[in-house]
Amino acid sequence: MNLHFSPKKLPNTLFIITMMALFACQNKIKQPLKPINVFDFQAFFNSEIKLLNDQHLSLTRTIVDKENVFSNNEKQPNWAKELLVFKSFSFIKPQQRDQYEVDTLRSENGIVFITYSANNPSLQLQLAEVMYTPDKTIEKITLVVKSNSKISANDLTLTYLPQKGYGIKGDVNSRVAGNRLIDIHVECN
Q: Domains in the chain: how many in total?
């Protein structure tokens, strides 16, 4: 088999061979998988703590325990402590993103709900929902938390209304203290 190159085709052939060699040696760039966007609850509550502190808002706390109702006012609350329960339960770790299904619901009047539902019943945060107003501000955050341990089982619903207040309701079942329904309501003043 004789291969003949004509001098006129040699530059084109060299160009093609050079290009093939260059492309063959290049590292393939892998596109990272697009992560599921998860609302940054930690950043949101950190900014809320700062806003509440900057506005010098006071609070009124009401606790219902069985037939007893306790209420108190705080002129200078520690907002970091007040919202700690929301920050601790709402953290979705990067490695857990695939354990939550994300659903978006849009109403005709422009209200949007983004819901994160746990696929795994062993996760403490079973549901997190962010409600946006038509002007895209956050109106409400709801967290449903379930936890089981050797000494207790908790089933709580936490609701946060930005710069207005929050509520915590649910069952706390302790093997030591028994079953208790809790109802805490906090209003910003």
A: 1
